[in-house]
């Protein structure tokens, strides 16, 4: 349902921005546990979709690394550059060149450039873009065939577009994120990190709350790097090879649902299971070995806790399947330890070991 809805939205989006200099939305990509197949709870599921934004005609996006960050994600700024469109005008397109036509002519015949609408200085602003994106979704809804049979209610969100869709007694919650792709890779910079990346691999409720507060105070020109699309591709890659295609997903559901409340976030379990899928031969992920795999996962987590180190799965991982395209810098960046806080805080480490026990 979410996939069909997003296809309908995309068709309307493209039509509504075609005569403007606003970003051009591309086909949405489903990310997170709901699209990976291991949603912890059917009742609480939120369908996260990432809408890539392309620069409008006469503009280009350049990503500038801001910092390595402390939230299991690097941060970037998106510099918006005006580019020459004279050749496009010569080919018959009705488009003045923002670099080579007079300001008076541009004002009279052409709509404001992206720099004048959604940017702060020369950088694309998340909050301004979020407000524009929200209005785009809202104005597009009535043009969708789904609007005749479904009821849509928007929910508060400052860096995404979140809504609840109802049809009779059935309903679902969708959160639309937007972002910019890094080259032709599976890595994006986004308005807001998808579910599992929120709070990194924290193991305590207080730590997750602190990180949520930090995210709320991120400046408008700062975009967060996300690996959610690469992770979806990884799970698709694994599903094509394991003998029992859902066994690893059942393992994740055991730890994220049955063991909820023991202190470990879903992103911790997800990271551990992804590492195990590249450590234990895929031929051994059979139904009859389910208990053995659960014990392997617990043993791997115990080792990570003892050495106070759990490495990020995508960053600096040279063992990623070749079909998952990442920028060269991602493979060579300094490995990120998601348990760094345990090495720095003995009390947090003791708490983690108690939670494990």
TrEMBL record:
* Signal peptide range in chain numbering: none
**Membrane recorded as keyword:** yes
> What membrane topology term does the record carry?
Single-pass type I membrane protein
Location of this chain's protein in the cell: Membrane
* Residues covered by the Mab-21-like HhH/H2TH-like domain: 263-317
InterPro entries xrefs: ITPRIP-like, Mab-21_HhH/H2TH-like, MAB21L/cGLR
Identification of the protein by name: IPIL1 protein
Q: Which gene encodes it?
A: Itpripl1_7
